[in-house]
Amino acid sequence: DVDGYGKFFGRVSLENNGGFSSIQYNFKAIDVAEYEKAYIRLKGDGKRYQFRVKSSRSERASYVHEFETNGNWQTIEVPLRQMHPTFRGNRLNIPDYPGERMAQLRFLIGNGKAESFELKIDQIWLK
């Protein structure tokens, strides 16, 4: 975007078993063992979103943190080792995110309704 941030936006459709939209970024796996939290500076539209990570691109499970947006710029705090595993919208009965490696991050909206959405992403960092 010309204002220097990423923008995840569109319209969720319920057709063809829809009801969600996501955007992902794959990268060479990095060691994240020394970090406790991810922080995301963003501006949403008042809707609920998910921040998801994977330890490797071939991993089936995504580890999820859900958050609400409030229409203003805000910083979301994500406790990495409390992210729960899911696959195709179902929570899995396996341990939470081990927080050792990261190779994919994703934002998802899946509120189960046909709606427009817009999420501006300024910065993501680990601490």
Would you summarize the structure shown here?
The chain is an all-beta fold. The protein has strands at residues 6-12, 21-31, 37-43, 48-54, 62-68, 73-79, 84-87, 90-91, 101-109, 115-126. It is globular, with a radius of gyration of 14 Å.
Structural class: mainly beta
- Number of helical elements: 0
- Strand order in the sheet with the most strands: 2-9-4-5-7-8
Low-confidence segments, given as residue ranges, are none
In angstroms, what is the radius of gyration? 14 Å
Query: What level of helicity do the residues show?
Result: under 10%
Topology pattern, helix = H, strand = E? EEEEEEEEEE
- Could you describe the largest sheet, including whether it forms a barrel? 6 strands, antiparallel
Roughly how many Å apart are the termini?
26 Å
- Average pLDDT level: 96
Strand tally is: 10
Inertia-based shape: globular
> Beta-sheet strand percentage?
over 45%
Keywords summarizing the entry:
0% helix, mainly beta, 6-stranded antiparallel sheet, 4-stranded antiparallel sheet, single chain, globular, 127 residues
Protein described:
The protein is globular, with a radius of gyration of 14 Å. It has about 130 residues and is mostly beta strands. Strand 7 and strand 8 form a beta hairpin. About 0% of the residues lie in helices and about 55% in strands. A 6-stranded antiparallel β-sheet has the order 2-9-4-5-7-8, with no helix packed on it. A 4-stranded antiparallel β-sheet has the order 1-10-3-6, with no helix packed on it.
